[in-house]
TrEMBL record:
<dbReference type="GO" id="GO:0006950">
    <property type="term" value="P:response to stress"/>
</dbReference>
<dbReference type="Pfam" id="PF22381">
    <property type="entry name" value="Staph_reg_Sar_Rot"/>
</dbReference>
<dbReference type="InterPro" id="IPR000835">
    <property type="entry name" value="HTH_MarR-typ"/>
</dbReference>
<dbReference type="InterPro" id="IPR036388">
    <property type="entry name" value="WH-like_DNA-bd_sf"/>
</dbReference>
<keyword id="KW-0804">Transcription</keyword>
<dbReference type="InterPro" id="IPR055166">
    <property type="entry name" value="Transc_reg_Sar_Rot_HTH"/>
</dbReference>
<keyword id="KW-0963">Cytoplasm</keyword>
<protein>
    <submittedName>
        <fullName>MarR family transcriptional regulator</fullName>
    </submittedName>
</protein>
<keyword id="KW-0805">Transcription regulation</keyword>
<keyword id="KW-0238">DNA-binding</keyword>
<feature type="domain" description="HTH marR-type">
    <location>
        <begin position="16"/>
        <end position="146"/>
    </location>
</feature>
<dbReference type="GO" id="GO:0005737">
    <property type="term" value="C:cytoplasm"/>
</dbReference>
<dbReference type="GO" id="GO:0003677">
    <property type="term" value="F:DNA binding"/>
</dbReference>
<dbReference type="InterPro" id="IPR039422">
    <property type="entry name" value="MarR/SlyA-like"/>
</dbReference>
<dbReference type="InterPro" id="IPR036390">
    <property type="entry name" value="WH_DNA-bd_sf"/>
</dbReference>
<dbReference type="GO" id="GO:0003700">
    <property type="term" value="F:DNA-binding transcription factor activity"/>
</dbReference>
């Protein structure tokens, strides 16, 4: 557990005062809450993010998906291969441009969405934080991402 910095602690290099440290710990902790919910679905957290994007809109080009997830194609490609191997998506040449791959859900991948519908509520319950506070946190984190030069 990280300690809260005291107001009179003037050391700008104190570990507890670092935004990067708090973000790293929060990220690992929250992603860890997803693991037992995703395991029965055969998904890792990064694969879940791919599925979330595709449940929102399919087909997507690899380039579009890469931009949405802020992942380079070299990182995204193994995720897509694994999801294709377990039957959740297909990668086909795009009809409009054969140089691009179109990623689309299979019927199995689309059906998995029903099971995933329970995940957000389970995470909110596990965190024990009001939804309004989580919405505000999301907004603050989006501003941090934008300020750091990343696109959300």
């Amino acid at each position: 557990m990280i300690s809260t910095p005291s107001n009179d602690d003037a050391d700008p290099l104190a570990l507890e005062r670092q935004v990067c440290f708090a973000l790293a710990i929060a990220s690992r902790s929250v992603i860890g809450l997803y693991r037992p919910l995703l395991e029965p679905m055969g998904l890792t957290h990064p694969q879940y993010l791919v599925m979330l994007a595709l449940w929102g809109r399919t087909p997507l080009s690899v380039k579009e998906l890469s931009g949405m997830l802020a992942l380079d194609p070299g990182t995204l490609s193994p995720l897509l291969k694994r999801l294709e191997a377990i039957g959740y998506l297909r990668r086909d040449r795009a009809v409009t441009d054969e140089r691009q791959l179109a990623v689309r859900l299979t019927p199995t991948g689309q059906a998995l969405r029903e099971q995933a519908l329970a995940i957000p509520a389970a995470i909110v319950a596990r965190l024990g934080i009001e939804v309004d506070a989580l919405v505000q946190l999301h907004s603050s984190l989006t501003r941090v991402i934008e300020a750091a030069g990343e696109q959300p």
